[in-house]
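Researcher: For the record, we're logging two predictions in this thread. I'll number them. Prediction 1 follows.
Model: Prediction 1, sequence and structure:
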Amino acid sequence: MIRSEITNDSIFDGRLTVRQHRDGYRFSIDAVLLACQVRPASGSAVLDLGAGCGIISLILAHLHPQVTVVAVEVQKSLAALAEENSAANGLADRVRVITCDLRSLPTKEISGPFDTLVCNPPYRPIGSGRINPHRQRAVARHEIRMDIRDVAAVGRRVVKTGGRLHLIYPAERLTDLLVAFRREGLEPKGLRPVCSQSETPARLVILEAVKGGRSGMLIGPPLVIYTADGAYTDEVAEMLSGTHQT
């Protein structure tokens, strides 16, 4: 891939740089919102499923210097970018990229069980809406190579008992998410609605689940992205600048 097809972007006021395909799949604010809600304990082993260009792995490794991350990405072009981004940000010793289908995740190549699993999965089921003609974008947005049941099955297999799972998902598909997780013994424990503005319905939800946890879920205050005049709220602005308290 020639250089003109790659953009060099940054977040956290330039402290993290991210190379992305100009015309391929590009990370959105959803990934940043999710990563900034995760609070892994020092020394945690984190699994990032569907890592894309590695944005969530980069954020977690940057914000939590004592954690290690295994980033799994099925698309070779995106996995290559994740490796480049890890090295360019000086995080290659703590962010390892594996190129494979999560449904056949090779246990021998990962060090588990994991303390934390993070995933920003494809949101759209097959048959809902037009599939993007760009293959990279299509796989990232539609459930072509994985769905929420696959994520739950991996979580049951590789997350330790008492370990935590964090996902961001469309609010309208919350029932699918809760059912899939509970079937695999992943108990929903925390839910935060994500709203574009304070008066709008939740567009997304951020879910935290515990493998083998007891029933009982806390619903937190909405995470509001924009103020009435279209600016980022203080909380989101802090996330994007890397100053959000984790």
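Researcher: Logged. Prediction 2.
Model: Prediction 2, sequence and structure:
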Amino acid sequence: MGSLYEDEYIIPPLGADYTFPNPKEACDEGLLAYGGDLHPQRILCAYEAGIFPWFSEGEPLLWWSPNPRFILYPEELKVSKSLHKVLKKRVFEVKFDNDFEGVMQACAKTPRAGQAGTWILPQMQKAYSELFKMGFAHSVESYLDGELVGGLYGVAMGKAFFGESMFSHKNDASKVCLKALSDVLGERGYDFIDCQVKTDHLVRMGAREIERDLFLDSLKSVLKKPSDRGSWQQFFWEYKND
């Protein structure tokens, strides 16, 4: 298998083992390698190295570690006045790991501005479903009158949560999930939520960019901390008037 070229950078193919190139040597855009597979152990090794898979239909499997990295620290989450009102009224019921498959499928099917399709392809859904069964992947859901109307999912390792995607079918439904996740993770000593790449929506909620080297260095210590592997269905969140 030959190499890909990204400007002056040579993008190498991955081999049969689960090793990756050094992400500190990647270009700022972050494309680091291609190929390999979506075996759960390879994905976990990628997260441990500060790398994540991201590719569209018809593309090879691409692996990324962008610079800067987009991070949300739980204590820095911002709640707007309108969201505060929604939280205070307890419009939505929030649950953890109650419908992981439903959240992932909704994330894949929900139209997004500026995107013609989805990167949450069937093979990605299969891989993350396996990670959920293994106790690494988790979802947060918001319900309105018993109907799933918003949610997010990602992977937890050590005291880091790697966010993958979120959706909302009602105003503020996914924001409530992010607030719940941030509160629970903060209480349990998590250092950050990795949001991967910058979005205006998450900027407004307090996420910010940090240098990739800083992210990678902090990730090493974060991964040494005790993890919460297993079901999160027992996690309970109730909004407290901050």
